[in-house]
Amino acid sequence: MFSPTSFDSRRRTLVSWLLPVALAGACSLAWGQSASDWPTKSVRLISPYPTGGAPDAMARVLADKLSKKWGKPVVVDNRPGGNGFIAIDAFKRGAKDGHDLIQLDSVHLAAYPYMFKKLPYDPAKDFQVIAPIFKSFMYFVVPTNSKYQTIGDVIADAKANPGKLDYGSWSIGNPVHLGMEELAQIAGLKLQHVLFKETTQLYTSVANGDLPFTMGTAGTAGPLIKAGKLRPIAVAAPYRLPAFPDVPTVAESGGPKAPYEVSGWNVVAGPKELNAAIREKIRADVAEAMAGADVKERFINFGYESLALDRKQLADFITSESARHENIIRRAKIELD
User: Fold this and answer.
1) What is the pLDDT along the chain (337 residues), one digit of tens a residue?
2) 121 shares a domain with 21
3) How many domains does the chain divide into?
């Protein structure tokens, strides 16, 4: 069972870990190398995602742009599985001078620290977040022939049949799971969480009518939406998105009003010991790469949103997301070994 003391301690740890993100002049270990002559060899971007998915595709777009900018290869090293812990372990054993970087998911930074009794990493010691990559909002999706036309319909049915309405996701603590828990807490619902081994099985199950609804991004659920096998009824965002501009927000669809949002996001992180000048070089170059017109086109195709934040804004954003997820996790009593 969670204790308030453990949560307060973890929050203080996360705040102390985020300080270097906000303070460019924070002390860091010098490695006898200036930013002007870095990198001196190929750079590895370790990813917790499998090849072929949208997050992997964005990592490869970023790697290609950085390779051209730096004049050295930037190689994406996919280490999927184990809740991302396999990738994190590889990163922890890697170079401390910035030649090994890691692509981290929102759950690694803003959810797992409150969920796992024992984490195989310490955010305060193992990472410093360098730059954001993207943000991705979730759509509520139903079978094409579903009786649900709005989120209001889903909520009404769940209230009329407490504990009998199922939704699915691919793991404990992912954005879909936490987003549904938050919806249940706000609206006073009791929903049943069904786990699937992979997203393909999840969205096929909804399309076939085996599962009444779930959430997904334009990248994960989008192909079946475009194929006419899934129907989006709302997006858990503060505004309608370019990928499906006719889909209303949750607030417009009879659901909770703002600030209810469900999203995932990615960042580039480096080792805690990374030289501040090199960190700032990476941050600036990632920001420049993500601002390109071709990248913005990719964002639309994948249903991603730009997460153009400076150091302090990024630190504030992660702190806010962490507090929100902590509250959801504590109220839902989600705890993993």
Assistant:
1) 334 434 455 554 455 455 455 444 444 444 455 788 899 999 999 999 999 888 999 999 999 999 999 999 999 999 999 999 999 999 999 999 999 999 999 999 999 999 999 999 998 889 999 999 999 999 999 999 999 999 999 999 999 999 999 999 999 999 999 999 999 999 999 999 999 988 889 999 999 999 999 999 988 899 999 999 999 999 999 999 988 999 999 999 999 987 899 999 999 999 999 999 999 999 999 999 999 888 988 888 788 888 999 989 999 999 999 999 999 999 999 999 8
2) yes
3) 2
Helix, coil or strand: residue 180: helix
**Exposed, middle or buried by CB within 10 Å (0-12, 13-18, 19+), for 104?**
buried
Q: CB of 275 within 8 A of CB of 33?
A: yes
- Among residues 93, 37, 41, 33, the alpha carbon closest in space to that of 271 is found at 93
CATH assignment at residue 282: 3.40.190.150
The closest alpha carbon to 302, from 328, 266, 274, 260, belongs to: 266
**Taking CA 192 as the corner, what is the angle to CA 190 and CA 198, rounded to the nearest 5 degrees?**
145
Shared domain check, 218 and 184: yes
**Does some domain include residue 37?**
yes
Query: Closest by alpha carbon to 193, among 208, 211, 207?
Result: 211
Residue 260 falls within a domain, yes or no?
Answer: no
Q: What is the DSSP code (8-state) at residue 150?
A: S
**Neighbour-count burial for 138-166, b at 16+ CB within 10 Å, e otherwise:** bbbbbbeebebebbbbbbebbeeeeeebe
Q: 186 lies in which domain range?
A: 139-253
Strands 43-47 and 191-195: unpaired
Inter-CA distances, 311 with 4, 19, 88, 218, Å? 29, 9, 22, 28
What distance in Å separates the CA atoms of residue 161 and residue 183, rounded to the nearest whole number?
Answer: 16
Same domain, 239 and 166: yes
Question: What are the strands of the beta sheet with 165-169, ordered from one edge?
Answer: 191-195, 165-169, 213-216, 139-143, 230-235
